[in-house]
Amino acid sequence: MVANAEQAEFWASVAPTWVEIEHHQEGIAGEPGRRAIDCLDVRPGQRVLDLGCGTGPTTVELARRVGPHGSVLGVDIAAEMLDRARQRAAEEGVRNASFVHADVQSHDLGSDAYDRAFSRFGVMFYADPVAAFSNVRRALKADGTLGFVCWQNVTANEWMLVPGMAVTSVTGSVPALPEPGQPGPFSLCDADRVHEILAAAGFADIEVVPHNDVISAPEGDLPDYADVALRMGAAREVLMEADEATRAEALESVTAALREKVHDGQLRLSRGVLVVTART
Ligand SMILES: C[S@@+](CC[C@H](N)C(=O)[O-])C[C@H]1O[C@@H](n2cnc3c(N)ncnc32)[C@H](O)[C@@H]1O
Asked: How far is the CA of 253 from the centre of ligand 1 (A)?
């Protein structure tokens, strides 16, 4: 049994929706992901791990950067995500990317084998983060580098906060947030905690750089944002048992809340991330 069975079950259950809304996810995660890849200084010929690679957009990007003499291994705990990742790599003619269905925390990733380990929002879900990052450090070469991007607190991320609050105002129930330090999207939102975990896992030269910007989308995309907000994240949990009338009311409430964020024809929502790098 995998060490993170609950997360494995969760990600398997959201995978079909994740695949359906991948264009939307790119609008949210694309820019911070590229920023983190740039910080990692990936070079041609290198061997790279993509941790929690999901449906593989960054695996494909990394594979392009390392070129035909390098390779990338995407690791993910949800087989359903990897089905799409393999399809994407094939569609895009990428031959130097492969994928393994495994838990980063417990899978034998080898030792002294990779130049870089990367993740775009895929490393916040470990029950034992020190064990997981120790495993990654072991897999890296002596001069290897880890780089990832993770979320700051929800208050820095209106794209999650605004719809979440709007749904809560309808249902009256607050989504069950993980306890501090427990696996979840905000488990690495505190820079001190990131330092502590990575140092305990044996990493050095740890740098945690906050980056805050605004997601800007044409007003016409608002219905898409509202629809996705109900199908993913906290709202999805809260509305799991809801009847049709409640769902319709929630959609109306989210749409109204997002409309308040439209200025000059653009929907504008804050986004806050931490870009992390560390050396073996
Ligand atoms: C927020 S998604 C990010 C996916 C992808 N990196 C992207 O940016 O589109 C988190 C991913 O981490 C994976 N994941 C969670 N826990 C994991 C673990 N212990 N080992 C490997 N993958 C894991 C999930 O299955 C999911 O695909």
From this structure: 30
Q: Go through the chain and tell me how many residues it has.
A: 280
Task: Specify whether the backbone of 264 is left (phi greater than 0), alpha (psi in -120 to 50) or beta.
Answer: left
Residues with CB under 6 A from ligand 1: 4, 7, 11, 25, 29, 52-55, 57-58, 75-78, 81, 103-105, 120-122, 125-126
For residue 227, give Cα distances in angstroms to 241, 258, 271: 17, 11, 19
Distance 51 CA to ligand 1 centre (A): 7
Q: Where are the domains of the chain?
A: 5-154+178-213+272-279
Enter the pTM of the model.
0.95
- Whether 29 and 92 have beta carbons less than 8 Å apart is answered as no
pLDDT digits (tens, 9 = 90+) for 7-40: 999 999 999 999 999 999 999 999 999 999 999 9
Which residue has the least CA distance to atom 13 on ligand 1? 52
Q: Using CA positions, which residue lies closest to atom 14 of ligand 1?
A: 52
CB 112 within 8 A of CB 84: no
- The class that CATH gives domain 5-154+178-213+272-279 is alpha beta
